[in-house]
């Protein structure tokens, strides 16, 4: 759904924004008024996609259909769709996250919202997590990610023969992933994380090693911001052949055939980025989606939007069940 139509819905459905712009003599908003207002939804697309792609707009329309009046904002690095797609391959992710922070903070509606919800597809998921950890203004209530590379990738994707941007970027990555040139310019390199090259990763990674707080210095703001989420929902595709390893969607560590679940890792036990605290209050969700990478159905999206997006007070009406720590978790 086009943003102009969503703006019309937002201002014509008795929403919080419409009430705030009404005459000063109008009575203050009640809790019920706030409850009826869907929080804005911010979406960050994945590698090789564009903010203006028809499929992404259909996702926005679904979100609005499930929670009528939802303002859907698509993060973009350029208003031109072709250049925005190129930016998914070529660019400095630290600068891209900073641009998203600035654009959202400057948006006339998003910037005044009490909170926003966020939806990340593939690499857009860890980039939105970067937004939360580094700026989070306005704050994100719930973050849902599909097939995201939260613990990095250990191999690079194959490209169609006709996709010259993808092929050129991937050719530069081979054997050059840790150079300053590549780390500051090629997007997938900035979340490349091969256990066999872990020391090089810690020293040279431009993005992932930082937002995962894997270096000796731990940024406490990252931990505090992520722990403030009400829900972090991590979807892994059961038959994902694009993302290697697929378990990265759950923060799992994969070394050869050995898989170490998040809850058995130091980043969880020492709570480097707030995942353990979030888990203790019942806000960390591990879910699977059928099929290969980004093979999403309307039904799954609709169910997710109904459960985690919508009115501000929604989470309080159906409080999550807290995660109970066992003896082995202490």
From TrEMBL:
Enzyme Commission no: 3.1.2.22
Cytoplasm is among the record's keywords: no
A GO molecular function held by the record: palmitoyl-(protein) hydrolase activity
Keywords: Disulfide bond, Glycoprotein, Hydrolase, Signal
Coiled coil spans: none
Superkingdom of origin: Eukaryota
Family per similarity comment: Belongs to the palmitoyl-protein thioesterase family.
Protein's name according to its UniProt entry: Palmitoyl-protein thioesterase 1
Native source organism of the sequence: Neurospora tetraspora
